[in-house]
Amino acid sequence: MTGDTGIFTLPSPSKFLTVVPNALFSLLLRSPLHRVISKRCVLLSFKGRKSGKRYTFPVGYWKHEGDLVEIIPLFNWWKNLRGNVPVIVWLKGRRYLAMADAFHGDETTVEELQALVQTSSNLIRVCRVERDAGGQPKPESIRQVAQSLILIRLRLIESA
To answer: How far apart are CA 90 and CA 58, in angstroms?
Structure first.
């Protein structure tokens, strides 16, 4: 399945390429050895909107401040997280209950992308944000990129 969100949605990877690495990362993120990958990766668990099936997999995050975690997904699973959906998150070795909401190309997405690119040259590269002559991200490029960007905002509620 391919997505409809422009440059940020990729075709879903084959199960063969995801099952084993996801299982290993999932075990690692729940273990005392989580520090190896937990600086940029969380384990996210939620129920599918239509199927009711529980999905659990590791996903990278760009921002963690207080009770806020922000994710920019590259695959279509984000559609299950529209409208304040309860999720479980393993973050830095701890399990949390959280509420997730997905934003797609709106002003929230633009504002957050502007803030995130100020601190992450990797995000500038991944999102293909153009830079000006001084090496700074161009505001018009950020706005254009944000139109096809998905932003998942997780609000941690409590440690579970």
So the answer is: 9
Helix, strand, coil in percent for the chain, rounding step 5: 35, 30, 35
* Residue range of the domain that includes 130: 6-159
- The CATH number for 147's domain is 2.30.110.10
- Inter-residue contact 99 to 89 (CB < 8 Å): no
- What would the mean pLDDT of 101-113 be, rounded to a whole number? 88
Q: Does residue 1 belong to any structural domain of this protein?
A: no
CA atoms of 79 and 6, how far apart (whole Å)? 15
Angle between helices 107-117 and 139-146 (to 10 degrees): 130
Q: What is the pTM of this model?
A: 0.78
Q: How far apart are the first and last CA of the chain?
A: 34
Instruction: Report how many domains make up the chain.
Output: 1
pLDDT digits (tens, 9 = 90+) for 19-58: 888 888 998 999 999 998 888 899 999 999 899 999 999 9
Mean pLDDT of the chain: 86
